[in-house]
Design goal:
Blueprint lengths: L10 H56 L5 H17 L5 E5 L4 E3 L22 H12 L1 E9 L8 E11 L4 E8 L1 H38 L1
Antiparallel strand pairs: 1-2, 1-5, 3-4, 4-5
Helix pairs in contact: 1-2, 1-4
């Protein structure tokens, strides 16, 4: 489709305008990608800090066991109880699994406690817990991106989620916490829509200005 207003603009001016818009579009795309990356990094940092706090708590009770202040069973019991309690006091929750893999403690779905997870397939069709064990054994810590259901939403509806996991070697525990990131994506696309609208408005204004200048030059 031919741009009718463009025919009224001298080719040299039009070329400058096109170069300007291409540069503007590339710069805007870069800034939007950087914005999304920053939002995701902030969310990952929050999740990582949650898990670091939880593993510090586990280590506290482990040291109690090491000092013979508690039996190992008591230390594990108190550690899990403490993690479960802080899970109930905040929006995000922790879980603890082992390398079998089996669930040691899940505060939201206690029916999973003790459940073997080797054959468990997540809502997005992945053997997620095997992936977590592999990361924990090979790296010690790491992020896992996946799709998961969200409480209060229709069954089968999946949302993007990111979890951070960390191995606690003395007990072969893997401590994890996850947060949903659909709001991050929503914020990103909202910024995209606003930027595109501004881009179109700017383009129309500059084209109109260029046509006005071109008509003035023709008359002079």
């Amino acid at each position: 489709m031919t741009c009718l207003p463009c025919k009224r603009i001298p080719s040299k001016i039009l070329g400058i305008i096109i170069i300007f818009f291409i540069g503007f579009a590339l710069a805007t795309a870069y800034m939007l990608n950087d914005y999304h990356a920053t939002l995701m990094k902030d969310r990952q940092a929050k999740t990582q800090q949650l898990v670091e706090n939880a593993t510090n708590l586990v280590n506290y009770y482990y040291e109690k066991f090491q000092k013979d202040e508690l039996s190992e069973d008591q230390a594990k019991h108190y550690a899990l109880a403490a993690i479960k309690q802080i899970s109930l006091e905040q929006e995000s929750y922790y879980w603890v699994m082992d390398t079998v893999p089996a669930m040691v403690m899940h505060p939201v779905q206690p029916s999973m406690d003790g459940m073997k997870l080797g054959d468990y397939i997540g809502p997005d069709g992945r053997k997620l817990f095997h992936e977590m064990v592999a990361i924990a054994k090979n790296q010690g810590t790491g992020f896992v991106h996946y799709q998961w259901t969200k409480p209060g939403t229709p069954p089968g509806t999946l949302f993007p989620k990111v979890s951070y996991i960390k191995m606690f070697k003395p007990w072969s525990w893997i401590v994890g916490a996850g947060v949903y990131v659909d709001d991050v994506n929503a914020a990103y696309w909202n910024a995209v829509y606003i930027t595109v609208g501004l881009f179109i408005a700017c383009m129309m204004f500059i084209l109109a200005l260029a046509m006005t200048v071109s008509e003035s030059l023709k008359k002079s």
